[in-house]
Structures are given as structure tokens and as C-alpha cells.
Amino acid sequence: MRPNDPSKLALSPLSNEVNQMLSNSQGNQAPRNTEDGNEKLNKQRSFEVVRESMHSAISMNKTEVLDAVLNDFSEGYFSLSFENRRKLLLTLAKEYDLNRTQVRELIKQYLGLQLPGGNEAQSGGVEDEGFLSTFYRIERNLRHSLKPVYEVLFERLNTHPGGLKVLTILRADILSILAAENISSLRALDSYLKEKLSTWLSPAALELHQITWDDPASLLEKIVAYEAVHPISNLIDLKRRLGVGRRCFGYFHSAIPGEPLIFIEVALLKAVAQTIQEVLWDHPPILESEATCALFYSISSTQPGLAGINLGKFLIKRVITLVRRDMPHISVFATLSPIPGFMQWLLSKLASQSKLAEAEDISCSSADRSGLTFYENVLEPEEERRLIESSGDFAAGKNGMEIMLNLLTPTSHDWTNSSKLLSALKPALMRLCARYLLQEKKRGKALDSVANFHLQNGAMVQRINWMADRSEKGLRQSAGIMVNYVYRPETIEEYAHSYFSLGHIHSSSDVRRYVQPLTENESSTN
Amino acid sequence: MRPNDPSKLALSPLSNEVNQMLSNSQGNQAPRNTEDGNEKLNKQRSFEVVRESMHSAISMNKTEVLDAVLNDFSEGYFSLSFENRRKLLLTLAKEYDLNRTQVRELIKQYLGLQLPGGNEAQSGGVEDEGFLSTFYRIERNLRHSLKPVYEVLFERLNTHPGGLKVLTILRADILSILAAENISSLRALDSYLKEKLSTWLSPAALELHQITWDDPASLLEKIVAYEAVHPISNLIDLKRRLGVGRRCFGYFHSAIPGEPLIFIEVALLKAVAQTIQEVLWDHPPILESEATCALFYSISSTQPGLAGINLGKFLIKRVITLVRRDMPHISVFATLSPIPGFMQWLLSKLASQSKLAEAEDISCSSADRSGLTFYENVLEPEEERRLIESSGDFAAGKNGMEIMLNLLTPTSHDWTNSSKLLSALKPALMRLCARYLLQEKKRGKALDSVANFHLQNGAMVQRINWMADRSEKGLRQSAGIMVNYVYRPETIEEYAHSYFSLGHIHSSSDVRRYVQPLTENESSTN
């Protein structure tokens, strides 16, 4: 430590400082390198100070004045530029991992000992307890030696007021860095931190709390800020989402007070809604006693640093249990969900396939089609015919797919204003959307992130809805289509399991109907 | 699983069943072997069923119907006799530890790879990321392979409603078994479970709650049941401990609702109390605004299965912070504590030394004193003289120590009814008590468990008080002497550290005065 260093931050309680930092670094980007040379020097010095406080936080004896050092480190970290945060995290990943000399020494000792009683340990109870005790001790030491030194920092921050929040921000920064460059040591640190966070954020440590209009404004403000699916436009909108016929539940952790880690918005309805408009705006709420359906229409995580830790699964299960207990007349649990990856997948498919189609036109009469095995007409003949017929005034193209691509690409979404185009596009878009949801996979899991989320939680694909979200975001992401996933309490575990182990996507016959004819046509048209 | 096994327990929500079991197994002893042959057969069958549900709970895929299996296991476990619990825990420790064949295989792979960039990893950033990524992967696999399989059961129970409580009971049983027999594998399991519990019960996961007369009777009942230091005699006593001039704070974990893991009772006073009578009974409470001292007069852990996990340290620190914030006129934080090990130490010292004294009498004139190097007259000459003078009617003995031993041993504590004996014993007992607290150690730590607890938390020994606890327990444990430890917020961390690393026991000059003359006399009398 440098006691007289003028750039050294004063010791002070974490909470206020950190909260300020947090609101500045929302979206976890510290300002990137906009300072002049002088400020750069200050930043650089400050980097060394933060590095030292990190070192102290890790190497101090556990009974020492940890709180001050941890505050010091946290505040220092937040004051760093993104570039310096990156440097610090790399230092942590590389210089505070393992003492590998010690690991090898313990491995040598370990290998020098005989296994106790074989794997099944069918001992007659007359083993030498002294020897066994040595064996277990060395095994434990080896286990401990394989723990990276940075675990100490994680553990200490976790038990420090405000520290869990600091850890989620560290991890958000790590994920930003890893998205830009692949650094093995940092990836190893990230996977370690993620494991730790998963443990600490076990459902046992989380509290379910219904968020109402009576909650503090500081909490409601967070709901408005974090709502990721359907932005909350004003106070009336917020009040409605917390009022009659609506519920909002959050998962809270005692170490991150005043904001949920994840929250879900629920509408109590007579039937599963087909459009988001009717949920958010159109319909006045019904009598709650007449509701038969709880519709989950929005679920938002608030901490980017908790990416990959599935808190939603337990939240949904607990909310279902709670609603069933309090309102036994509600028997249907469904979502009205976006399909965030549909258009991206479709447009890239249309672009690549219409290029291949062009190539096919050229080599059409040639006998050599081996270069074209990836070619597939995404459209059915009838769909292509209607598109070509109705697109005249709007878009050109050498084939149906190119026309569709040119219709759907502009961000003005002009196609939605023409009833002719709407009815020409609808059959193709609905069929392709069903195909996207049920058949397009990556490593055996649904390609769409929201689909993957609900399917791994044990839901099934129930229905897809045309023009269900006419917002700019809805049109851009999924041509306005939304999907209802349904959770049946009695099949949640079974579906989750068969999806997890076999990649099986459960769906209603209504949705399957869209894709079954395709399979037949495919074989007849190719 | 044996679906048709008639002894199979029905699946049902855990909470009620477990709560019943809990109140039956308070003190964590299941009935030991009192059943007849027939019942034994049932128990035995039930053991196999519980063993199978334990196996399922560990080996199931994580998306399967875990909740039912974990309930099944927990209920099954509670239904077992202590003997069968022991058998099951040994099975868990021996057959669900490590796959050591896999460990050795991974060690082989690991040793086949070069260390990345040495220990200091001063790499120029041009390392082969592909190789490093393989290295970190194998290291992680090795780390994971060294985790015992039973960790899965612990982790799953921890995230299961009611499961943390089940784990504390498992551990209480394990500690009972280990107290009777030393089984290395079970000791290894215990140390692993203890590490896990420490992590899960980090202060970040605990909530401080002030317990008041407005709390549910079911919670207050637990306070009465668990109060370990000064038993609560009736409702009026309880109400007084929660009323004006008193505070009671508990540490709660969300997974163990309705009962604190540890709680502390505080009296707001004008001065540090010298006797427990004035705290519990004699004095009417003062105006809280006139208080200058917060006296911690009782601290009780409620879970035997959390032995060795220091929750008290954080509780005390948080309570001090809270009281300082709410009542800035309170500046003294002290305890009035029992000295549970004093009499046991003193009586055994008196017994052994008076025997050695006898031996010395015999070999008194002999030149060979080498066999007597451990001999020490525990009493000072003046103390011995007064004891011999005043003990005539009460006890005999060949020397002062034997007389003292004979006076103090009877459980009737007759010596407390004679003012002559009281004044003869007081100087010796007070001096020896100060010596016991300040100088008697085991592995560098205070021999007395309560002293060790407060010293490791950063307190100092402030004052010892004559006839401070005249209850049977107080007389038996410490001849009625109690001690005030003082916590000075500004020195807590420093004292905790010097005690931890150097075994330094901080004390006031008042207490040191008792032992300093002894050191001078010792050199002059020997």
C-alpha cells in the first residue's frame, strides 16, 4: 500500500459510492479512453493502486481489516477505465490462479499412496485409520491446491456487504471482454466465477416477492428501467401492470436489496392472449375470479453479469405454485413470447438460398449438381407464386426468395401496410416461423434463445400468432409473430428432461400442422 | 426403486413431516435400538429404501423430478434409527466419495502437459490459446473429479426447500458419531460438509432481525427452547428480555424460516453489569435514552449441526453497528459471560498438584527433585494459610490444595453459605480465574471456549466479577464468577488479528493485576 499516494481513494462506506458508480456504469461500460494525456497518467496510477488493493484483498489474513480493503478495491475498480479494468482482470486471471508447483508436489505425494480399499471400499472395517486419515488429508490438500487463488477474492466479496453486486459487474465486464477476444485464462476465470455465482444464487438464497404499486418508487423505477421485453411507456402503463388482473413477481437476494435479479409479469385472463396489444392496452382487466389463465407476458433479467445462470426456471415454477395455491380456478399457464431470432435466421437463409438459386439457374441444365447440395427452395411453389403475383409494386427479385428478402429487409416495414402483401406473406411466414421454432437447432437445442429458455424449463410450443406484436421491435425481430408456450404443471419435469437429454421439442398439433406438409412437399419438389 | 414396497413412504410435502421429526429429534438423537425383532426387520427394510432414495437423489439427471426424491430421502432419513443413520452416513462417505480411477487418469493427462508460462505467467500474449484452452479444461476436469460425489447430495439439498435444515441435522448426527469413534472417511465427509455450510451461511445470506414481543409465538417458543446460557423461566421473564431496555437480535436464513440460527440478548444499561442477577431480575429497566452501555448477556446457537461455523462474530459486529447507529449515546459494548471451563480446569489442577505435593512431602529432604518438575503450589502462602485456618469445620486435607479441592467438589456448594469460607476462598479463586482466562491455553488459544469465542471476535478481558452468577450452573462451572469482555469498535479487528496470529490476549490492568504478583511470588517461592 502507498499510504501517502494522493490518488489513493478515501475509505468510506461502499453503498453510496457504489450505487453512484452503478448508475453510471449501467450497461457496464466504463468510458473508453477519452481522457487526455494527463488524465491517462492519473488513471494509470490509479490502476496500480487498485491492483494493490486487489492484492491486499486476496492476501490478507482473514481476521484483518477486510471490509475497508474490499470497499477500497470495489471503489477503485469502478473508477477504472474499461481498458484498465481489462488489464486488471487479466492480471487476476493470470497471476492469481494456481500455485502449480504446489499442485505437482501434492500430485506426487498423492500418487505415492495406495487407493484405500479400491473404488467400492468394501472394507471389513479393519483398515488402518491412521493411513486413511493421511490419505484423505492429502486428497483434500490436492483439491484445495487446485482452487485458483482468485477464489479468495470472490468468496470475500460474496460475504461483504454490496460485494455480490460488485461480482456481477466484474462478470459483466469479463463477458464484454470475452465477446471481443478469446483469452483462455480469462475464460477459465469466467467459468469459475459463473460456477460460484450459480451456487450463491441458488433458489434457497432467493426470495420471491410480489411487486405492487405499494412498493418503494426506487424499486418500481428499476422495474421500468430493466423491463427488456415490452418497454413501460409511462406511469399509467406501470400502474396497470401492477394493478387488478395483473401480477408482477421478482426474485430478490438479500445481498442485492431493492432490486430483483429477475422479474416476471403476469396477466390473469379468460383465455390465452394472441396479441400483446390486448395484454398491454386494449382490454380492460377482467374480474380476477373469472380468470382461467395466467399469461406470462414478460420476463426480464436485470444483471448482465448473471448471464447463463438460469434463475427464470425456478421463478416460473414458484410463480405457478403460488398462483395455483391462491387462485385454484386458474388452470392454464402460458406465455406470450417474442421470437427474437426468427427474422435474423430467415433473412440470412433467404439471402444465401436465393444466391444458390441463381447459381442453379446458371447450371440448371448441367448434370453436375453436386455443388448445390445445400440448395433448398425455402418457399413452397404456391407461396412463391402468390409472392411474385402481389409484389409487383413493392419489390423486385429474380425469384420468390429474393423478392421476400427485398420485401422484409427495409426497416420501414412497408409490407405491413398492404393487405395484399400481408395475405401473400402470411402463409409463408407462419410456416417458416413454425419450422424455425420446431426444427432449427444448434447443438441439439432450439436455435431461438427464448424458445430454448422455455423448453429447457419444461414448456411446450402451443400456438403461433400472426400480427401479435406490431411494434417496431416486434416487426424487426419476428415479422410481428409471437408464440404461446404452455407450462402444464404435470408435464414440466418430463418435458424439461426429454428436451435436455434428447433435444425433443414438444408442440401442439396446431403448430406441427404448419411444418408437416412441408416435409411431404420437400421430398416431392427436390 | 421398489414401487410396490409396502414400507415405502408416501410422497408428501416435506415441511410438516420434517418439522414433526425435528421436534422429536431435538438434540439429534434418534431412539437407539429399543425395538423388538419385528420392528428391527421393518427398520432394516426401510434402510434399504432410504439408501435407494439417497442413490436416486445423487444420480438423477438434474432436470428430473428431484423434489419428490429429495423429500423421500429426507423423510426416510428421519425415520431411521440412529444405528441405521450411522450405516447410511458411512455408505455415503465411503461409496459416494471420488472416482479415483478417473482422478488418476486425469492426473496422467495433466502431468503430460507443460505448465503455461510458468508461475508468474509473464507471457508476451502470443501463447497458443488453443493449447492453453486444453490445459485449463483438463485442470478444471481434474478439479471437478476431486469433488466427492456426495457433494451432489449436499448441493441439491441446499437448493431444496427445507434441505438446509436437513443438512444441519445430518451434520449433527455425523458429529455425534465422530465423538464416539474416529472414522477417517466420515471425518473427511464432515470437513467437506462443514466447508459447504460455511459458504452457504455466509453473512451475505443471513438476515439480522430484531426479535420482539410482537413476533409469532412459534418463533418466541424457539427462543425459550434454545436459550443456552440463562434459561428463560416463564413468560414474564421472556417478555422482560424483549421489552424496554432490552434487545434481542437473531440471524435468520431464508431457507430455515421461523427460527434464528443464532441469537443474542442485549441489556441497555448505565454501566457494565457485574452480576447476572441485576440483568435478569433485580433492576427495573432504565430510560433507554440514559443508557451508555449495551451489555451482551447471552448468545445462543440453535443448530448443533453448525458447530465450528462462527456465525457469532458477524452477529456481534452487525449488532454493534446497528446499536451505534440507532443510539449514538451508547458507547460501551460489553458482555457478561460465563466461564464454563474454569472449575473443571481448577479441580483437575488441584487434584493433580495436591497428589504431587504429597509425593514431595515424602521426598522432601531428598536431593532428587527431578521427578517433581511439574509440581507447582497452585496457592500462594497467604491464601493457603487462610484456607487452612477457616476450613476446620468444613473439609479436611493434607495441604491447602487438597482442602480447597474438598471444599469445592461437593455439588451442594456449601462453601457459599459460610461468610468465613467465602472471604477465605475469594482471593484465591479470583486470582486463579484471572490466570485461567489470561494464561491457560491450548494450541495457542484460550482454553476456555467462551473466552476463545470472544477473543477471536476481537474482544478484550475487562473485569472478573465475584458471585456474579449464584445459580447452580454458575457455581458448578465457575464458582459463581463471571467475566466482562469488552468490544471496542476501533480495536476489534486489531485485537482479533493479534489473537489469531500471536495468541495475544488483550486485558485490562484490573484483571492483569491478579496475575502479575503471582509471577513474582512464583520465582521467590519455588
From TrEMBL, chains A, B:
Sequence ranges of Polar residues compositional bias: 23-32
One GO CC term of this entry?
A: mitochondrial matrix
Q: Where is the Malonyl-CoA decarboxylase N-terminal domain?
A: 139-200
One Gene Ontology term of the molecular function aspect: malonyl-CoA decarboxylase activity
Q: Which InterPro entries match?
A: Malonyl_CoA_deC (IPR038917), Malonyl_CoA_deC_C (IPR007956), Malonyl_CoA_deC_C_sf (IPR042303), MCD_N (IPR035372), MCD_N_sf (IPR038351)
Gene3D superfamilies (UniProt xref): Malonyl-CoA decarboxylase, catalytic domain, Malonyl-CoA decarboxylase, oligemerization domain
Superkingdom, taxonomy of origin: Eukaryota
Query: Where is the region Disordered?
Result: 23-42
User: Mind telling me what this protein is named?
Assistant: Malonyl-CoA decarboxylase, mitochondrial isoform X2
